[in-house]
Amino acid sequence: MAAAIDAPLPYDAVHMERVIERAKPHRMRHRYHVLGVMLRFDGRYRLGTTVLPSHRPILSFLPAGHEEEGEISGRVDNWFTRFTWRALRIERRDQASVALTMDGRRILLPYCKAVDAVTATAMIDRIARVGRALARGDVASSLLARALVLEQFALYVDAPTVDADATGTHRALARFREALEQRACDPITIERLAAGSGLTHDYLSDLFHQRFGVRPVEYRTNVRLAKARELLTTTTMNVKQVAHQVGYPDALYFSRVFRQHLGLSPRELIRRYPLMR
User: Fold this and answer.
1) Is 77 exposed, middle or buried (0-12, 13-18, 19+ CB in 10 A)?
2) pLDDT in tens, 4-46
3) Looking at the structure, do residues 151 and 176 belong to the same domain, yes or no?
4) In terms of DSSP bridges, do strands 44-47 and 67-84 run parallel, antiparallel, or are they unpaired?
5) Quick check: 201 pLDDT over 60?
């Protein structure tokens, strides 16, 4: 006979609607496990280093003891259940996910999942029913509330992340990378280049980092310095001329960046390869 799984014990079920005018970074350590869904109609939501899409409902699971770091703005409609669960053991956590053990099984979960409307509605239904059951306060309702939180958790574990816009996002990312390479040395901000992709700068920056391992600003710096190295070793241009050519109006600043990334100054590079000029 299989051993019974210790059920979660709900503390409360909350529906919160609010408008946050300005995004301010926040830190919050959770006393209870928090499991719910955020319906966000506008604004910006960042959790850790992840900027979440504004056009999808977001399921989230934040374990007890987790220090949430992020920022949020705009009109927010948030539903969540707070609960304890002795059977749930936190193994490790990072900026994007948490590793759990339950009934001897290991589970790796992201803190957030973008989901479809059907999944979000199912989660909201269970949260609302938990609230009603807790309000009644009798033994049967308490057992029902615990079962409903277990259903919520199962729904979260099984919910696939919606990626309906993957093709469009991939194309936008490809367009942005191409523009970044072609215009790396031009006097144009990365924000303006991002605007041409159809995605927000922050969201695009996170996608770019996930795909290529560096932020756009660092990628552009690498492109600029590769071009600078080529010019310094194959032309008779001096350091100031090369700096201007690759997008640095200040030759001294250019030299500092060059040394930081390549381990030697532009002049040292010129002296090392005199026959190539």
Assistant:
1) middle
2) 457 899 999 999 888 777 666 667 788 999 999 987 655 556 6
3) no
4) antiparallel
5) yes
Other C-beta atoms closer than 10 Å to the C-beta of 262 total 15
Are 260 and 175 found together in one domain?
yes
- Note whether 40 and 172 are same-domain residues: no
**Residue 236: burial class (beta carbons within 10 Å; 0-12, 13-18, 19+):** exposed
Both 185 and 57 in one domain: the answer is no
Beta pairing class for 26-29 and 58-62: unpaired
Asked whether residue 110 falls in the same domain as residue 14, the answer is yes
Q: Is residue 58 part of a domain?
A: yes
Q: What CATH number is associated with residue 53? A: 2.60.120
SS3 at position 160: coil
Strands (E), the chain: 9-20, 26-29, 33-40, 44-47, 50-51, 58-62, 67-84, 88-93, 97-102, 105-110, 112-114
Task: Find tokens 């719910």 and name the residue.
Answer: 36
pTM, 2 dp: 0.56
158-167 confidence digits (pLDDT tens): 887 655 444 4
Rounded to 10 degrees, the C-alpha dihedral 221/224/228/230 comes to 120
Strand partners, 83: 10, 33
Query: Tens of pLDDT along 219-240?
Result: 899 889 989 988 998 889 999 9
DSSP H/E element including 239: helix 239-245
Instruction: State whether 228 and 118 are in the same domain.
Output: no
Structural domain tally of the chain? 2
> Domain limits at 88?
9-158
